[in-house]
Specification:
Structural class: mainly alpha
Number of strands: 0
Shape: elongated
Distance between the termini: 33 Å
Helix content: over 70%
Radius of gyration: 13 Å
Number of helices: 4
Strand content: under 5%
């Protein structure tokens, strides 16, 4: 794996961790506008051209899997 691939994986992994945290925070405080914006921002990232350059994993698939994980 090249250094660029490792960096791309790290960016996607951090975004997934941030999304998990944001979903958990949203479950605790669904009226919090800041958390709602954070969730929306991360979802835009997962659907962005930049995300598509970083990985071949479908962004909507990842969002669905992380949301399922958050329900457990």
């Amino acid at each position: 794996m090249t250094p660029y691939q490792r960096l791309a994986n790290a960016i996607v992994e951090q975004a997934a961790k941030d999304y998990r945290s944001a979903l958990k925070a949203l479950a605790r405080d669904s009226d919090n506008a800041y958390i709602q914006d954070e969730v929306k921002s991360l979802e835009r990232f997962f659907r962005s051209r930049w995300y598509g350059i970083l990985t071949n994993v479908d962004g909507d698939y990842l969002i669905d899997k992380l949301r399922e994980e958050a329900k457990m």
